[in-house]
Design goal:
Elements lengths: L15 E9 L3 E8 L4 E8 L5 H16 L5 E10 L2 E2 L6 E3 L12 H9 L3 E5 H12 L8 E6 L3 E7 L2 E3 L13 E6 L10 H4 L1 H12 L4 H6 L4 H25 L3 E6 L7 H11 L8 E4 L6 H8 L6
Parallel strand pairs: 1-4, 4-7, 8-12, 12-13
Antiparallel strand pairs: 1-2, 2-3, 5-6, 8-9, 9-10
The protein binds zinc ion.
């Protein structure tokens, strides 16, 4: 497991090669200075401006600027950005984004950020970036074939095949959150019946409010050990297992790594058993496990884009 140290590990007299990793989500923008071994040297977080677009780009540039001044003696080799939405491989242009990030589709993020910040920039879908982070520094180091599922406000994903992130024909691969499942609800993509609409953070909060009349914060106050929360999350876990099984039958991965979604953590073993029941025998050795990189996976994975071959 990667550990994070706040201390400066730089030998005397040498500059430390680092990258800035930026994770753009529907609720927060996170940014960090990360070294080549995946250690977070300094990190910052701010709210995602609801208007998105240029206001969000200005926020990203402000975070990069603040990080540049946080660690003198580090050489920034580039900026990596993981963002919600589909990103065209090679160009860093957002082809489409869901309602969670407004005015984002059509923007060439790589070009805009390079111009604002003066460093080379690589941009990818956040799920792909997180899969790369887990491959380089986390649980994925053991596997040539795995699927990363990330549960935040929405649900994202990334696919690793033969030790490389698989992006599909136009960058749209790995969108696990939009697999259709029974019991899916309204989704940020505008459709119904998506996995995200049943198990994503926003959906879970909405469903809890509908069921109990209590505010969503109540879920976290009561926590996963509370019997009502446990029953409720087991129902969500059942739908998550069905979604995961569809993906496992298609890709035959060695592992499914689940990032985020703290309320699912105590159900992962159960989800693994359920997935194994649901898939073909050839796929049933699949392991379901939590991310080993942990809470900084978004920014660590984004930074890893800077050092990814090709
Ligand atoms: Zn959807």
């Amino acid at each position: 497991m990667t550990t994070y140290r706040k201390t400066d590990r730089r030998p005397t007299g040498e500059t430390l090669a680092a990258a800035v990793g930026v994770d753009v989500g529907g609720t927060h923008v996170r940014a960090a200075l990360v070294d080549r071994e995946g250690h977070v040297l300094h990190h910052l977080r701010t709210g995602t401006p609801p208007e998105g677009g240029d206001a969000l780009l200005a926020e990203v540039a402000g975070l990069v600027h603040a990080l540049r001044h946080s660690r003198r003696g580090s050489t920034i080799e580039g900026i990596g950005v993981g963002t919600g939405g589909v990103v065209e491989p090679g160009t860093g242009r957002v082809l489409s984004a869901t309602a969670l990030i407004r005015e984002w589709a059509g923007k060439n993020l790589a070009a805009e950020i390079e111009e604002r910040c003066g460093h080379p920039c690589r941009v990818d879908n956040d799920g792909n970036a997180q899969a790369l982070g887990e491959l380089r520094y986390g649980a994925g180091q053991r596997f040539g074939h795995f699927v990363l599922i990330t549960i935040g406000t929405g649900v994202g994903g990334g696919i690793v095949v033969d030790g490389r992130v698989y992006r599909g024909a136009r960058g749209g691969a790995g969108e696990v959150g939009h697999v259709a499942v029974p019991g899916g609800g309204p989704c940020s993509c505008g459709r119904r019946d998506c996995l995200e609409g049943a198990v994503g953070g926003r959906a879970v909060e909405r469903l809890w409010e509908e069921r109990t009349g209590a505010p969503a914060a109540d879920l976290f106050t009561r926590g996963p050990r509370d019997p009502d929360v446990d029953v409720f999350m087991r129902e969500r876990a059942e739908i998550l297992a069905v979604g995961i099984a569809s993906v496992v039958n298609i890709l035959n991965p060695q592992a499914v790594i689940v990032a985020g979604g703290p309320l699912y953590r105590s159900h992962l073993e159960w989800i693994q058993a359920r997935v194994r029941e649901l898939v073909l025998p050839a796929c049933a050795a699949v392991e379901v496990m939590p991310s080993a990189v942990g809470e900084h996976l978004g920014v660590v994975g984004a930074a890893a884009l800077v050092w990814e071959d090709g």
